[in-house]
Design brief:
The chain is an alpha/beta fold. The protein has four helices and nine strands. The strands form two sheets. The chain has a five-stranded parallel sheet, sandwiched between helices. Strands 1-2-9-8 form a four-stranded antiparallel sheet.
Amino acid sequence: MTSPENGVLLMDAPAIERAIKRIAHEIVEQNPDLSQIVLAGIPLRGVELARRLAAHITSFEGQPVETGVVDVTMHRDDYHLRGKLPSPQQTILPLNLTDRTIILIDDVLFTGRTCRAALDTISSFGRPARIQLASLLDRGHRELPIRPDYVGKNVPSSRNERVMVRLTNVDPEGDSVWLRKS
């Protein structure tokens, strides 16, 4: 199957749903005290993934899980490569991060530089007990020593390929993941 911009379909809606449910179960297994975790998404799609993970955890544990947003705009190191300045968004985290576990959530893990920027952002808000990382896709090509704790799917890719995640509530196409040549 091909489309968004003539790519190859890597994950359809059911595969994305299964991956999110599996990650939600893994998070509960690793973090038995759900009152201490915050699922913090990196805009744009990480925020939607955090919301879905929280909904799954709440549905099978019967306990709500706090969510947040970690905007990395002010800590990025690649403005000179992007060509345009992104619009900063609000970072939303609990006022007191002490003894909390922040689970950072992004749609695609690539070089690790976005995660590094997110870690810098979180550090400017406080000192959580732990920070874990969850990603729907890990495509490799890390430039920094960053490793995810939870992964939906590993996708071997070349640097000249592009992974595009589409999520309902964010994108008009609905849930899908595509790989295409850039």
